[in-house]
Amino acid sequence: MNTTAYFDPAEEDTPAGMEPALAYTDISDVPSEGTGLAGAAYVPGTKIWNIDMARVAADGDADAEFVSTELGYAAKYSDTTISEFLGADADSLDRNGDLEMGPSALSFTGFIYIPPGVHEITVVSDDGFDLNIGGVDFSEYATGRSTDETPRVADFEGGLYQVELLYFDSGGGMSLSLQIDGLPVDQSAFYQSENDFTDQLSAVPTVLVDDYHPSFFLGEGSLETPVNTTTTDGRDVV
Questions:
Q1: Using only C-alpha atoms, what is the Rg of the chain?
Q2: Smaller CB count within 10 Å for the chain: N or C?
Q3: Which helix (H) or strand (E) holds 223?
Q4: What percent of the chain has pLDDT over 70?
Q5: Residue 116 within a domain
Q6: 106: number of CA atoms within 13 Å, CB side?
Q7: Which secondary-structure segment (H or E) carries 53?
Q8: CB-based contact 87:97 (threshold 8 Å)
Q9: For residues 35 and 53, what is the distance between their CA atoms, to the nearest angstrom?
């Protein structure tokens, strides 16, 4: 799938040292269903104006934990609860979903599948965030802002990358979403562990790795690529 029409590949700025935990060359199929990212919410009862203050909050004990199936959240008011902000993902909440979001910090950890090639990774947020991919700092917006985007274009070896995202809301409106090549990332791209990825290969329908994009199941009709509905008997890893 060629998605370079949605961004300028000439703006490529690949961070040094970024590596997949499981390389594209060792993968033949991608599961149609991910297992999400491990999420945690921190509501310290003090102001959070920047990413450094968010890191301090996230060093404490989590007030709530959840599973993030798709990074796409938004709300208008400071008194929005964690449960309300998470929407459908609130079903996975453990503890204190009634706490208000403003101010708060949310962390998301796990793995994301990114195809090989040049891709634009964009975080859309209100307020700030810090994104780590493949063991390196990838992008950051350190202070408050209304909803806006922070893109970065990089050349990826391809595969399953460790991902860590720290987000904060200082009050008022709030939003957080992740895009690859200008398209939203669907649940099939996110996993809580490497084992989750390989286990899913024999548990759910799969897509040939060369046909897959992280927005595949959000736009399957337009991609015109068939899903392999026959699950494999074992790990589809060479």
A1: 18
A2: C
A3: helix 220-223
A4: 89
A5: yes
A6: 33
A7: helix 51-58
A8: no
A9: 30
Residue 224: predicted pLDDT? 40
**Is 2 part of a structural domain of the chain?**
no
| Closest among 159, 70, 164 to 115, alpha carbons compared | 159
Residue 150, domain member (yes or no)? yes
Residue pair 204/32 in contact (Cβ under 8 Å)? The answer is yes
Q: What is the pLDDT of residues 174-211, one digit of tens each?
A: 999 999 999 999 999 999 999 999 999 999 999 999 99
Q: How far is CA 102 from the centre of its chain?
A: 22
| Rounded-to-integer distance, Cα 168 and Cα 31, Å | 31
- Structural domains counted in the chain: 1
- Which residue's structure tokens are 């979001």? 101
Instruction: Please give the Cα distance from 13 to 164 (Å, whole number).
Output: 19
Beta strands in the chain (DSSP E): 22-23, 29-31, 37-42, 64-68, 72-75, 104-114, 117-126, 129-133, 136-141, 148-156, 159-169, 174-180, 183-184, 190-191, 206-208
Give the model confidence (pLDDT) of 94-134 as tens digits. 988 999 999 999 999 999 999 999 999 999 999 999 999 99
- Residue 51 belongs to domain spanning: 11-223
| Burial of 222 (C-beta count, 10 Å sphere; 0-12/13-18/19+) | exposed
